């Protein structure tokens, strides 16, 4: 490792690791274990499929406890100390779908684009380049890459994958922002969801061919079936939130569904339904992060129902 690489790591506040001995010393894991996990990392995964909304299978790659512990160390001590692009709003601490939607408030037109197979599209080479860019030498970058990838791509199931995906998409964000910024168009990315908005409908629509070119040149793919354009005639939705000129929230229909779930907790047939209780609790937590106005309404509704049904499951939601 050159002197300049060591200086770079120190400036970024990252651990200086030049050899396997260094890695072993700092993690308290034997050289042999590090070597085995790096060389045979593919053998430390359990894979299974879950269906996507489209019905297509999504492969989940679940690392073993030992490998996941190693990945978590890399995430906490290295990856979490790095910054992503200003356009990136997903998978980052203290960010939510609301942060992704806010820049598009008040826009006349919103274009949303979905990246196809986001994690599997990112290769070992791209991950290696991330660690090299941070300042690590070829040996350590290779070890980190082997530990964080599965069969040559980012696995969906590793704690490192979201952050590595964001760092791998740094140049994608930079190029897109450079192109749309000078045209008065806002751009944000929440994981694989790209959102563009502006006051001039034709300006927003006309950027699509160049965005497609940039995406493909950065080795990503667009899911054409999920490309959407919303103007004044259609509801403007960004990462599940409905955007109007005045406010951003989950929308009337979703809130209506939440109210229905809350009401179900008062029914005698739902007594002991912990699954439903947890589901409603999850929705309340989500509202707290993205739609505090409707959270207040939901809390008021819960208190009203509790007065009428004090011994129902609703009692566990009262504050």
TrEMBL record:
Protein EC: 2.7.7.49
Pfam families tied to this protein: RVT_1
Keywords: Antiviral defense, Magnesium, Metal-binding, Nucleotidyltransferase, RNA-directed DNA polymerase, Transferase
Domain of life: Bacteria
Gene Ontology molecular function, alphabetical: metal ion binding; RNA binding; RNA-directed DNA polymerase activity
Record flagged with keyword GTP-binding: no
Protein's GO biological process: defense response to virus
EC main group: transferase
Family label: Belongs to the bacterial reverse transcriptase family.
Protein name: RNA-directed DNA polymerase
Protein source organism: Flavobacterium swingsii
């Amino acid at each position: 490792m050159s002197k300049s690489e060591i200086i770079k790591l120190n400036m970024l506040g990252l651990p200086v690791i030049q050899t396997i001995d260094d890695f072993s010393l700092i993690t308290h894991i034997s050289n042999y274990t590090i070597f085995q996990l790096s060389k045979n990392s593919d053998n430390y995964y359990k894979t299974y499929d879950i269906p996507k909304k489209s019905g297509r299978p999504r492969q989940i790659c679940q690392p073993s406890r030992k490998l996941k512990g190693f990945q978590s160390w890399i995430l906490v001590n290295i990856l979490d100390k790095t910054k992503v692009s200003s356009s990136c709003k997903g998978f980052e601490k203290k960010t939510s779908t609301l942060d992704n939607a806010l820049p598009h408030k008040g826009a006349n037109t919103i274009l949303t684009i979905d990246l196809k197979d986001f994690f599997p599209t990112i290769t070992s080479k791209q991950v290696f380049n991330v660690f090299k860019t941070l300042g690590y030498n070829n040996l350590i970058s290779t070890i980190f890459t082997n530990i964080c990838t599965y069969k040559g791509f980012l696995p969906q199931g590793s704690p490192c994958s979201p952050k590595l995906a964001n760092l791998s998409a740094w140049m994608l964000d930079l190029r897109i922002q450079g192109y749309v910024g000078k045209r008065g168009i806002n751009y944000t990315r929440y994981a694989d969801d790209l959102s563009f908005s502006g006051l001039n409908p034709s300006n927003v629509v006309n950027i699509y061919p160049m965005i497609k070119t940039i995406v493909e040149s950065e080795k990503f793919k667009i899911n054409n079936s999920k490309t959407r354009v919303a103007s004044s005639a259609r509801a403007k939705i960004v990462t599940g939130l409905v955007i109007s000129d005045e406010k951003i929230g989950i929308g009337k229909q979703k809130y209506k569904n939440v109210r229905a779930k809350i009401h179900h907790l008062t029914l005698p047939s739902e007594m002991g339904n912990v699954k439903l209780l947890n589901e409603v609790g999850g929705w309340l937590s989500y509202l707290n992060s993205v739609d505090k106005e409707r959270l207040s309404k939901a809390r008021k509704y819960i208190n009203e129902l509790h007065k009428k049904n004090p011994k129902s499951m609703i009692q566990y939601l009262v504050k």
